[in-house]
Amino acid sequence: MMVEQINAKGQLRHLLTLAELERSHIETIIDRATGYLTPAGHPPPHDTILRGQTVANLFFEASTRTRASFELAAKRLSADVLNLDVNTSSRAKGESIVDTIYTLQAMQVDMFVVRDASTGVPANIARRVDSHVSVLNAGESDVSHPTQGLLDLMTILQHRPDVDQLCVAIIGDVKHSRVARSAYQALTKFDVGDLRLIGPAELLPQEGFDGARLFTEIDEGIEGADVVMALRIQRERFTELGAIPDSQEYYRRYGLTEKRLRVAKPDAIVMHPGPMNRGVEIDGEVADGPRSLIERQVTNGMAIRMAVLALAHEHVRDCHGSTR
Ligand code: ASP
Known about the structure:
Radius of gyration: 20 Å
Strand content: 5-15%
Distance between the termini: 28 Å
Structural class: alpha/beta
Number of strands: 9
Oligomer: single chain
Helix content: 25-40%
Number of helices: 11
Largest sheet: 5 strands, parallel
Strand order of the largest sheet: 7-6-5-8-9
Bound molecules: aspartic acid
């Protein structure tokens, strides 16, 4: 059974996947996020909108940027924030994630931010929580990472709003990447002009990217690109260790270097979702260079997470009005 992400009033209730959101919903989130950006040198935005509400961050898989930014976003909106320590939580003692959720729900948690290595976990939780509660997907297996897709689209739109004219090249382990899947879902809603996926054949996806063009030669794939996104090899998702490409050989064939970037458009931007492996999928010179928007992606990610929490709060608030 599909979970409705938008409630009967048209408000964002859950954020599980971008695949089933309308373009207008994506625009609403990005507009809201834009309002949470502050000029360089100014203090970060603060709002009291989530005062009295409780956000629980449940990260059952490693995370730096997403976890830190969801936590800061909730705090900057004045929520009570719980960061469950997965190593000492009862899940380590065999409790099912659903029982953990029911326990926290009994403590009146209003929003769950969930990352898990298994497919379907955020939707499964969303099906079971009380009607006022929201579930936000913070990374699901290799399937979905909606806030990453939104922050990537926001970063691209800031560079060039005419997405339908753009050539976007994604290089690396696309096959195992939830980042690439969510970027694809966001970009296709905006009718991306030309989407290219580049990497060794064994790291290119066999399905799920209709309309994208596949390249095994990096120079051919990034020629004329407006946006070049490098991805990490997702070693944790390989079932056979022998299938993991050797890092030096990978860098030689697919590492994003200044020299390789010369065939992209002169004003092409470089993106990477992090964590980066310098000297493997991207050269330090490119990561720190003038085309790099990698830090901007992080700043936009904060704003996107504030926007998603603020919008989902409207659902929680209206339900509280009628039930508490
Ligand atoms: N941070 C991103 C993710 O959670 C990308 C990565 O891990 O390589 O999917």
